[in-house]
Design brief:
The protein is an alpha/beta fold. Helix content is about 45%, strand content about 20%. The chain has four domains: about 120 residues, no CATH class; about 100 residues, no CATH class; about 80 residues, no CATH class; about 140 residues, Glutaredoxin. It has 17 helices and 18 strands. About 35% of the residues are buried.
């Protein structure tokens, strides 16, 4: 049950990017794009992921029975909310032969996290400038592999176990409310339902946490989680109201003390609420910029600076910096493939001049310098000899491309990956696809990539960066629309599996980090 709840609450949005409509400048809407892999930095024998950020938290983990699961992955992932850039960050750590792993990560405020291994997860609660020793074990749940917390160090054990229990309880309460909400309600009826649910949940929390004095953090965590889960739903409900006065009335309960509440930083629900508030309630900005006799880089710096200045006018103090840093993160860190080294210099300058909060500035600069280095390295590498770029033009239809893929790979199992450069969850899965490449090298399996809704140069940068072997097609809007309609694609990444006879086995195939996809490959190879 714990595993199922985690999937519903945390993973639903983690493995699918929403469609990017319109041209390449349209913003992305995936929540998994809120996450980004950062592998530990091994320089100077350090496991610090962003060593330049002084405020941090450490998990020293131990999987006691790893040897019993010797064929499973040797990486563990940690999902952390960071309000300072308005994002979820995904960190990855290697597990050594004895089952030990370490996360040394930047942390702005205490927060609930998700530590994921294979098909399971646990929810350690982290504190800044603190070290948590975590002891875990693995177990089989049918065909799945779950991870469970056995104990923590003496300082944290009682709190972490109680937090896990209460987190499970409130997640279940919220899930039940969402599932049992009547259909066909107006937005005003929905709003009333949310307020009533918040009140009833607070009453339950008051009873559930009897000794509030000794459980103050947990008590406040539950109450804020209840409140901001309800409020983020209400914020979404009103986003399409056109009349200004009606919209103001609908959102009249959103006082500054609710919206800008430092005490609520202890729950990830607050970050989600604040992001929804920014998108649905705060005024939309129109940026105009006139430039004369400026270079491309000078113009870019001017536009970017003006956008940041306008954003920072919406809020006050550190809340303005949260918004500005979110813009910088979204404009650069999540679009690395579209940038040059010199363009990132613009955002480094902006971060140094506009951001005064020490933690936020350190994190942004650390990320930007890392991206700059990554781009420089990418520009100095070539495509692998096993990467085939198909030169299809606009006269080639999507149907012709699909027929060509099947004809060129006759007698082979075909695994098609539909992706985009702006889709973080697509990029997230490339290392897993490369693992499949290695496992089935020399077998009758072909890997085909269809890049859509992206800039062609950016797509080639991604292929170079990840050294993706296989056959690559760059689809224009009409070509992608064929696949979109034929396979009913509503989000990417999307995977299509075709057998050796050219028959489509699955138009929504298992993702490459699924253990079952390996069995499916073997079955189709041997047929």
């Amino acid at each position: 049950m714990k595993h199922a709840l985690f999937i519903i609450i945390a993973i639903i949005s983690l493995f699918s990017c929403s469609q990017k409509q319109g041209n390449n400048k349209t913003s992305k809407t995936s929540s998994f794009s809120e996450m980004r892999i950062a592998s530990p930095n091994k320089e100077n024998n350090s496991d610090k992921i962003y060593p330049e950020v002084e405020q941090r938290s450490v998990i020293i983990g131990q999987i006691e029975n790893l040897k019993e699961f010797s064929k499973e992955t040797r990486t563990v992932k940690l999902i952390v909310d960071d309000i300072s850039i308005g994002q979820q960050l995904l960190f990855v750590s290697e597990i050594n032969d004895s089952g030990k792993f370490v996360f040394d990560i930047p942390l702005y405020h205490s927060i609930n996290t998700y530590l994921k291994y294979c098909d399971g997860s646990i929810t350690p609660y982290l504190f800044p400038n603190d070290t948590l020793h975590l002891y875990c074990e693995l177990s089989n749940v049918g065909d799945l592999v779950d991870i469970n917390m056995i104990s923590c160090d003496e300082k944290h054990d009682k709190f972490q176990k109680e937090f896990t229990k209460q987190e499970y309880w409130i997640s279940k309460q919220i899930l039940n409310f969402d599932q049992n909400l009547p259909k066909g309600l107006t937005i005003y009826e929905m709003k009333d339902k949310c307020f009533a649910f918040e009140k009833s949940l607070h009453e339950k929390i008051d009873i559930r946490i009897g000794d509030k004095a000794s459980n103050q953090l947990l008590y406040e965590y539950l109450r804020f989680t209840a409140t901001y889960n309800c409020y983020k739903d209400i914020v979404r409900l009103g986003k399409d109201i056109k009349d200004t006065d009606e919209k103001d009335l609908f959102y009249s309960f959103l006082t500054d003390s609710i919206v800008f509440n430092k005490d609520a930083l202890i729950t990830s629900s607050f970050r989600v609420f604040l992001n929804n508030y920014s998108a649905s309630v705060e005024p939309k900005l129109k940026i105009s910029y006139l430039s004369f006799n400026e270079t491309k880089d000078q113009r870019a710096l001017g536009i970017n600076t003006k956008e940041i200045d306008k954003k920072m006018e919406i809020r006050k103090g550190v809340w303005a910096e949260y918004l500005a840093s979110s813009v910088i993160y979204n404009n650069v860190i999540k679009k690395e493939e579209e940038f040059s080294v010199s363009e990132i210099d613009n955002y480094i300058q902006i971060s140094q001049e506009k951001i005064s909060d020490k933690y936020i500035q350190q994190l942004l600069l650390s990320m930007l310098f890392r991206e700059q280095k990554s781009i420089a390295e990418r520009d100095n590498i070539s495509l692998t000899n096993s990467s085939i770029l198909k030169a299809n033009d606009k006269t080639t239809s999507g149907g012709q491309i699909l027929n060509e893929i099947i004809a060129d790979n006759k007698g082979k199992v075909i695994y098609i990956d539909i992706w985009a450069t702006w889709c973080s969850s697509c990029l997230q899965l490339f290392p897993d696809t490369k693992r499949l490449h290695k496992m089935f090298d020399g077998n009758d399996v072909s890997f085909v990539y269809l890049c859509c809704r992206s800039q062609k140069e950016a797509s080639q940068n991604v292929i170079k960066k990840y050294q993706l072997k296989g056959t690559h097609y760059f689809l224009d809007c009409n070509q992608y629309e064929y696949f979109e309609k034929k396979f009913l694609i509503v989000g990417i990444p999307r995977f299509i599996l075709i057998d050796k006879s050219g028959k489509i086995i699955s138009s929504n195939a298992l993702i490459p980090n699924s253990n079952k996809i390996i069995s499916e490959f073997n079955r189709l190879i041997n047929e």
